[in-house]
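fwd from M.: "can u put these together and see what the complex looks like"

so here's what she sent:
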Amino acid sequence: MASAITSAHDPARRRVTRWILRNSLLAGFVLVFAALGVAAPGFLTWNNLVSVILNEFTLAAIISLGMTLVISAGGIDLSVGSAADIASLAFIGLVSVHQPFRLAVIAGLSGALSVGAVNASLIAGIRISPLLATLSTLFISTSVQQLASNGGQPIYLISGTLPEAFYFLGRGQLFGVPMQIYIVTVLAIIFSIILHKSNFGRYVFALGAQPGVAWYSGIRVSSTSALVYILSALVCGVAGILLSVTVKAYVPQSGNAYLLWTIGAVFIGTTLHSEGRPSVAGTLLGVLLLSIVRNGLLLIGWNFYWQQVATGLLIFAILAFSGSRSREAS
Amino acid sequence: MPLDTATTVSGLAVSGLVKEFDGIRALNGVNLEVAPGTVHGLVGQNGAGKSTLIKILAGIYQPDAGTIRMNGAIHSRLNPPLAEKLGIQFIHQERLLVPTLTVAESLYLGAEPRVGSWINRRSMNEQAVTALQDYFGLAISPNKLIGELSAAQQQTIQITRALLRKTSILVLDEPTATLVKREVDLLFQTLQRLRDDGLTVIYISHYLNEIETLCDRVTVLRNGVDVATVEPRQTPMSAIVSLMIDRNIEDLFQKRSVTLGEPVLEVRELAHRNAFADVSFTIRQGEILGITGLIGSGAKEMVHSLFGLERISKGQVLIDRREVRLSAPSQAVRSRIAYVPEHRREHGVALSFSVRENMTLASLREHSKAGILIERSERRKVAELIAKLSLLAPSQDAPVRQLSGGNQQKVVLGKWLSRESALYILDEPTVGVDIGAKTEIYRLIGELAGQGAAILVLSSDLLELLGLADRILVFFRGKVVRELDASTADHDALLSAVTGVNDQKPDRAQKSTDYADYTDLVGQSRRVG
């Protein structure tokens, strides 16, 4: 027994592989930075990097936090974009008819939470697979939006008539740092504690690793997984509202663009862990990498479709690399 | 029947086969000579090495030493395609069929009659009908789905499928477990007819009366060695039984003096929709109660219901004289019931979780404040448990997949030792565990009882129960049929109670039970990873 452990799973060798794994993502960063720095003039400027964070990173990062939790629990949430869209619709809808700002925020979050509640009851209640359950809520909420927005008409707000809080959330700064950065940071810290430092987070990972073991250990599996989908919807609601205040409009289907991005980011993040576990830090690095690539390609002048191809290839390359590494390690 | 011509075609000779798992020898130099055109029985207790031997013949395991001689050629190892090419076909106790395929598709899977590169469905269906009619006198539509067939019919399909391949040796592992008497008779007739046509059959069963009826010779395995090969018709069954039993196993158990305290678990007239009824018993502090029974006897379901895994329809369960509701494991755990499950990898440990994460999964609340983990307290507890269990692990943070089966099982025990429970339920606690870890697990169980816990052991290993338990309840067809004092009962009495053979032969027509528990297949397959 002892010999089997030392030969196949030599701790020293493991450490080396883990080091390489960790650095596959970092190496990806260095490579991307170097390539874009050379190919895209203006990429490595402070203003550009700040704009990457603000325009590309924040919303995807917020949605990805929920997705990290969901994937840790062994599930998937395809309805993140529609939860964000519903939040945006409810929020903008109320703001456009001059309802109090606070009420609009609550309505937006409740809209997203209702999507989460449907997911939770389908998945934890009647045990439909997360893929199918969230796919159906994706369809339902898309249709609901179309019904509620006159067949999918955008709602544009007229500047000048908006409450001050609206501008503050969208463009406000505190000590020279944009509000949205604070929001991302606070949410990331909260999710990091939930996932990595709390009992609940351990249960979530147990559910993802081996649901049978979770059940037989006396963990309340249904309520754990229900809470996971509700938290995911909640951050989508936050993202939907932030999206709305940034563009001052409700644009149908704008949230769905984040779906594949966030899934990709979580899986890129799993390469940080030797057992391929998602983590908040890994996910955020994943989102950052994807944002940078997107921004850089935009500066070079590639069109949207080629950006998508490049993003897909990047995700593929990192996962393939780490997959082959971890096979070697085991 | 000439039995001494092992060198002729399609006979099989295995010699000096050795197979080690984690330093434990599952086979320790097994010899087996099967003469062509005979039915050769293979018997032995759980862990005797039957399944390992069969898996080597199937090419699933590679032996560490020894040879396999077939068709005059000597092989030091086989692989599944080679075994198939040599004409060895296997019928396992689990039905390995795809429920959504039709009967004909299953029979000819991978060997479909073809026209060019298209499957000739008509000819396939016609051939299927003929084959089933010929071998088993069975009239099943070839277009019926496997999922629509009864267990027995599925078994028949599997055997027919094997016979349709170019088979010279047919290996059957507990093939009658799911069959009723009429089907068993038909199977035996078919096998005897095929044998007379020159087929060689290796037949593994726990039903010694089947061995007596069917087999020309029988080899008894014990502890990875063939202890004898005899002619069952000339040998009394009791002699075969005594060859199978290894008396030394009793040395594994430490005798302990029991002082029973207050009742911990009281079960009153417990009943289940269809698995068991009218079950009442009590376990006191410091007592180890053994429960056993065949699959379908209700023993497993009853034990599951005590952990909220099965719903009861009637009756009461009391822990420390207070009635508890058990509709989910989470409730059972809160009622201070611990459960070490039979299927370690599905229910016991999460392989990608570290030793620490696994061990504290059921007791995180004791290591947290307001839902936030206190890692230092967690680590201290786990270090303590590792020492207590003499667990062999690279570190607390090593994933459990790196541990051997026995050490994984200790992690499961550790998970429940990490919280104070009143009742510990152990479901097949030593399946797939090597002998060293086994002894330590027995020691820990004894210690737990010594500290005043109530312990319930569900096991199909009768010697384990006799050595470990104070009392043994035997389930048969949903009822407790016997209560035995483990210190006075012997193996034979227990075995007859379990199999319902109080007075000689069991009625096969009534038997709807399954002997799967009584084979060591599970144990061997677990031990590898």
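replying to her w this: Residues 11-39 of chain A form the longest helix (29 residues).
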